[in-house]
C-alpha cells in the first residue's frame, strides 16, 4: 500500500543547513508536500512540488525530488532556532482526496 | 479571515461518553477533512466531505460519525468514546492542491 517514511529526528547548529529526507512508495503520486508543525499548533504548508519537477526553491527552502528513487528532500538554509518544529512529508494523487503523511521529522536547532 | 477554526481546544471524556467536535472555515472551500494525529505516526484521515450534504469514510472511520449540513461547518462525533480515541484531532479544508489546517483539539478519554 501507499507509505511515506521519514527519519524521526534531526539536530543541527544554528546557521547550518538542515536536510530532511523522505521516501514514498506510490509512483503515481502527483503532489508532494512539506508541512511544518510547531508545538500546540496545526500543520502549516511550507511548500509543495509537482511530480514533473525536479527542484523547487522558495527563499531559504529547497525541495529536491528524485522520481526514480521516490525520494524527496527539504533543505533549509541558514537554519534558525525558529525553525525548530516537526516537518511532515506528504503525497497525494491527482483527483484523490487522500493525502498520505509521513510520521514527521523533529528538527532541533542548537544555538 | 479566521481560516480554519476548531472547538473545543481541549476535552477530557470518560469512556462511553459522547461529544461533538466542531470545525468551521470561512474560505468557501468545498472539501473538508478530519484527521487524527497519534505519537510517532503521521496524520490519518477519519472522514472527509467533498461538499455540503456529502461525507465519506477515510482510513480510520470506525467509532466516528460526521455531518456537513452547512458548507462552512464539518462536525465530528464520537457516540461512545473509548481510550483508543485519545488523540489530537485536526480539521482541514482544501482548495485545489492546498490543505489548510485548524489548530487541533486535544482529546483524552479516561
Structural key phrases:
heterodimer; A: mainly beta; 0% helix; B: 110 residues; mainly beta; seven-stranded mixed β-sheet; four-stranded antiparallel β-sheet
What does this structure look like?
- The complex is a heterodimer of chains A (111) and B (110).
- Helix content of chain A is 0%, strand content 57%.
- In chain A, the strands form 2 sheets. In chain A, strands 2, 4, 5, 9, 10 and 11 form a 6-stranded mixed beta sheet that branches. A 5-stranded antiparallel beta sheet of chain A has the order 1-3-8-7-6, with no helix packed on it.
- Chain A starts with a strand and ends with a strand.
- In chain A, a hairpin with a 5-residue loop joins β4 and β5 (43-50).
- Chain A has no helices and 11 strands.
- Chain A has 111 residues and is mainly beta.
- Chain B has 110 residues and is mainly beta.
- In chain B, 0% of the residues lie in helices and 56% in strands.
- Chain B contains no helices and 11 strands.
- Chain B has strands at residues 4-7, 10-13, 19-25, 31-37, 43-51, 54-57, 65-67, 73-78, 87-95, 98-101, 105-109.
- The relative contact order of chain B is 0.33.
- The interface between A and B is medium-sized, with 21 and 24 residues.
> How widely separated are the two ends of chain B?
36 Å
Biggest chain-to-chain interface with counts = A-B, 21 and 24 residues
How far from one another are the termini of chain A?
41 Å
Structural class of chain B: mainly beta
In DSSP terms (H or I, runs of 4 or more residues), the helix count of chain A works out at 0
Q: How much strand of chain B?
A: over 45%
